[in-house]
Amino acid sequence: MPRKTALDLRQMKADNQKIAMVTAYDYTTARIVDTAGVDMVLVGDSLGMVFQGLPDTLGVTLDDMVYHGRCVGRALRTAHLTVDMPFMSYQVSPQQALESAGRLVKEGLAQSVKLEGGERVAAAIDAIVGAGVPVVAHVGLTPQSVHALGGFRVQGRGEEAAAQLMRDALAVQEAGAFAVVLEMVPGELAAEVTAALHIPTIGIGAGVGCDGQVLVVNDLLGLDSSFHPRFVKRFAELESPMTEAVRQYVREVHEGTFPQARHTFHREQPAPKLAKIY
Ligand code: KIV
Prior knowledge:
Radius of gyration: 21 Å
CATH class: Alpha Beta
CATH superfamily: Phosphoenolpyruvate-binding domains
Strand order of the largest sheet: 1-2-3-4-5-6-7-8
Helix content: 25-40%
Number of helices: 11
Distance between the termini: 30 Å
Structural class: alpha/beta
Bound molecules: 3-methyl-2-oxobutanoic acid
Order of helices and strands: HEHEHHEHEHEHHEHEEHH
Shape: globular
Strand content: 5-15%
Oligomer: single chain
């Protein structure tokens, strides 16, 4: 099956099929999520927090996104690859946005790019789409504006905020985005936006009324047991077995019980040919 395109994903909404999207930041995870059948993989700038240990996404650079895009893109066989445009790689001007998007496609293997904002980024979306690069928009909680929003909190509450969110979603559709992420928006509002748009909505903390869902892969796999926001469902609890596996390794190295004879090469044995080695 070939890689999914922006057109395929738009068609999924037309066909009433839900879209499953997940983040990935490295080759191995990307290979696993692709094999598991996700429709879209997002190299999110959330990598600043879950991969680089930063307090927010603001310090992530375009070079970071290119690097991680390339790692993930090499692994994908069927899933569509969207790469995030990091803070200050598109806000300056539509020209800057176009040049940044160009790098993500040429060097970062992106099939589409994602940027945050509604009406205020319409000109940037128009410029990128005009150059033939599909765009995913992102409205609601836009983490790159964390300081202006006063924290990571639900957006679109109250009449005026809800009306603005609807205007933002319509503006990005009008500018040419082929999909839009709705982050931390009341479920009722997300369902209204989804009904009003002909492009797919992909929700995170926005309820089941969206056309698709996205989760950060570390959250989905339960890699950080101390982090449990309301909208995350952990489909596994991997932090504990991973910690236990490494603890066991440390124990065996300290005790001298690893490696055993079967993990050891011997002079008389024929040289084994390994498929891969570091
Ligand atoms: O950066 C990211 O991972 C995202 C998703 C949470 C939508 O933007």
